[in-house]
Amino acid sequence: MAKGTGSSSRCFLIVFSLFFPWVAGCASHAEPTNLEHGTATRAGTPLMEAAESGDLDRVIALAEAGESLNTLTEKGSPLMAAVVEGQDRIAWYLLSQGAAPDLATPDGGTPLMMASSEGERRLVQLLLSAGARVNATDSDGYTPVMRAAENGHLSVVKVLLAAGANVNVSQGGESLLMKIVASGDLLTAEMLLAAGADVNYRGSDGITALNLARNNNNRDLEMLLVQAGAEL
User: Residue 159 maps to which CATH number?
Assistant: First the structure.
């Protein structure tokens, strides 16, 4: 076991043997391999291809042969490849062996952002339990909860907020609540307000969420915002 990771890795394995009993027998008990961070091309990283294709046996074999779990390519890390393809078992194995949960793509996107954007609740829970940063920001200013909310993944939004996601993030001059109100998503707006979203946040142009609801003639959202304390 890598220095300093023994007890935390054991706890991680125990927890995810409960959440992922169907993969509990797949993780190797061998000592973790190279966890140093490095860079390479995707084509020159066999572990990327194995993770993308869902070949758990090959992922394990490559890891045990010394392939770095934390190589960063133009497509992200092997963990990112597993998340992109929705490969729960491979993501679990890589994390249990010490893969860094926050290695980002060149645009700053993390595995948690990708899982959140795609509504992959199990992967979101897995990454959070492995220590992924819930408020990481990409180069466009987006966080995981913004990605989940804008794509309508209410259950993922709930998980992220419970894990400490900042409900009052803003991007492009608009708060998350404003973006959701503009899209007409009443249920997500209700959740954000319940979590403490600033109902009177003013965007860079002075517009509020209430202005957006009225501009879109959305009476349900208008009523919700007024009840939540929106200034008339």
Answer: 1.25.40.20
pLDDT digits (tens, 9 = 90+) for 34-76: 777 777 677 678 999 999 999 999 999 999 999 999 999 998 9
CA-CA-CA-CA torsion sign (130, 133, 137, 142): positive
Which residue is listed with tokens 């008990």?
A: 29
Q: Residues 156, 175: one domain?
A: no
C-alpha to C-alpha distances, 205 to 180, 192, 200, nearest whole angstrom: 17, 22, 13
- The first and second tokens of residue 42, run together, are 């995707």
pTM comes to: 0.85
Both structure tokens of 150: 């804008």
DSSP state letter for 27: S
Dist CA 165 CA 65 (whole Å): 38
Closest CA to 160 of 219, 210, 110: 110
Tell me which residue of 223, 226, 166 sits closest to 196, measured CA to CA: 166
Around Cβ 144, how many Cβ atoms within 10 Å?
A: 33
